[in-house]
Amino acid sequence: GEVLKNLNKFYKRKEIQRLGAENGLDARLFHQAFISFRKYIMESSSVSADLHIILNDICCGAGNVCLLGHVDDLFPFFLRHAKQIFPMLDCMDDLRKISDLRLPPNWYPDARAIQRKIIFHAGPTNSGKTYHAIQRFLSAKSGIYCGPLKLLAHEIFQKSNDANVPCDLVTGEERVYANKDARQAPHIACTIEMCSTNTPYEVAVIDEIQMIRDPARGWAWTRALLGLCAEEIHICGEPAAIDLVTELMYTTGEEVEVRNYKRLTPLTVLDHALESLDNLQPGDCVVCFSKNDIYSISRQIEAKGLECAVIYGSLPPGTKLEQAKKFNDPNDPCKILVATDAIGMGLNLCIKRIIFNSIVKPTINEKGEKEIDSITTSQALQIAGRAGRYGSSFKQGEVTTMHRDDLMQLKEILNESVRPVKAAGLHPTPEQIEMFAYHLPDATLSNLIDIFVSLSQVDGLYFVCNIDDFKFLADMIQHIPLNLRSRYVFCTAPLNRKEPFVCTTLLKFARQFSRNEPLTFDWLCRHTKWPLPSPKNIKELVHLEAVHDVFDLYLWLSYRFMDMFPDAALVRDIQKKLDGIIQVGVCNITKLIRASQSAAAPGAAEVVSEDFPLSRTKRDTRAVSDRQGVKSTEALSVAVEVPEGRRVKNLKAYRSATRQEDLKSHGRGSLANRLLREGLLTQEMLRQLESEWQDQHRNGTYGLRSKRDDQSSSNETGKKKK
């Protein structure tokens, strides 16, 4: 007990904490080291003789010397123990130098060796800013286009070659040469992560520069902006990024010329909402922010005898292009588009009117939890700007909402100024991680990244990008024996960690790779069960999309480990066939939705409306709130037991009902708003529930009772109604 008391005194001493900080132990590490040190002393059957003597002197107060003075004598033993559990303490100065990110311009000596001319083409969507940059790209002797999407890179690749300017296409998964003998062309169109900072060009184009603030991918724009070795750098994007780019270029000694552009066609925010799908017109695009809403809206549209195209993020690029072509074709009966914000960039669409089905968007926070928040001004402008594209059959664009009470908020969002871009993203390079590993040979890759980020120093113009996906993959493959460089490459693979099938496949790839066994075409076919039939329901369509991502993953790895992933050409062939199968599935999406509903197992809860899919959680909470212009007298909340993938047909499972007055009195704290913010309820679900309740109310078949009604019925019959 005396030892424990004195150890705790040691821990609380300010002088000891200061000495710890001087030796690299911040508050968190100091606390962890002390807990381990205390456990070592208290639980060890014996300790070294010198430590035993010190402890004895402290506890006995040898020579009547002040106990606190003797407590400090424990520090050398504490520091020695701390270095055993935190080996980095022995080389802290070296690690701090390696993780010093305060001067990123110095990472690119080739770019610093030339005086670059920086031209910023600033303007909204559909203002011609990218067009002017591309014209200069085409007229140059050599050039590189860097875009955020494969679709954009492919579009510039096509335009260049159509204009008789030989241009290669370079993406993470694909290399297409303009020359038949595979000689590199003087022009390259690439996704921004794939740009070379060593090759000299006359002109470089960096598209969508505002994405330099992206928490996950911003580092790629920073790298291109600081590192491209080109005489002229043409930057395209929102005016909100002008100040940051100017400041960054000031640190490199380069001036920025700004060319401002205005929208080429007028865009009008309408004074009325759509309110009903009966009011849809040719050229309309309904924008949703969840797949469930996509399925619901497309089903309702086709139930009215209208054809619609469907575009969402997880569709393969070929399917997106095919759906866009179908919608744009004046001779095709498909005149309506239902899409997510995936249409915000990368697709040329002949849209007359953008209709926001909702103005809230689900996001995943840093804890991995689902949240819902209003879309930003930048997102709203990017999407709304797709209406009335210059050169299309519609000379002006229109934008509105599906529901009346969203329209005023949309107008407020669109009228707000776009938040200035404040900082540019950075990411540790493989070389930096290798130097860390040299000093900390026993640390896992995930720990190396953690230590790097904790020690890294950045100035106010930069931030370290989110590394959660990297760490997720690093932890997943940690048990597989790989050298550090290979492990790093696997962890940077572009995949969605929410797709179990794709993550499992990466794990199998890594395991096979570690055995030095090539991943052949036959092996891949066995794993994916290729050939695959056309999808019969939504679940099968989603699986096909995941298989397409697996093929993408194989192709991505094949360009980094050619000998271990040798059958890229064969995989690309079957990927094209799979793209065709998915296209057929998307064209028949409403049939797949119906098949999914009819396949629901007996005994499951029945559906609110056949167009209303519940989310996949085991226990789902839903709510109905009063909306403007609707004479709702109740706000209803329900907790329904739903097996994964099931849908519900009526609302038997409602447990309580709350008066409209209660809903109003709670304001933003109401159950409905809380569920919306927490991502347990979408606007579409809320409206569907309310609509059905109103129908039942008018028809006199309530199907739902308030608590008061239940009590009344109970008094009459002697039994409680469920």
UniProtKB/TrEMBL annotation:
Stretches of the chain forming a coiled coil according to its record: none
GO biological process: mitochondrial RNA 3'-end processing
Chain segments carrying region Disordered: 691-722
Main EC class the enzyme belongs to: hydrolase
Protein name, per record: ATP-dependent RNA helicase SUPV3L1, mitochondrial
Pfam families from the UniProt entry: DEXQc_Suv3, Helicase_C, SUV3_C, Suv3_C_1, Suv3_N
Gene Ontology cellular component annotations, sorted alphabetically: mitochondrial degradosome
Enzyme Commission identifier(s): 3.6.4.13
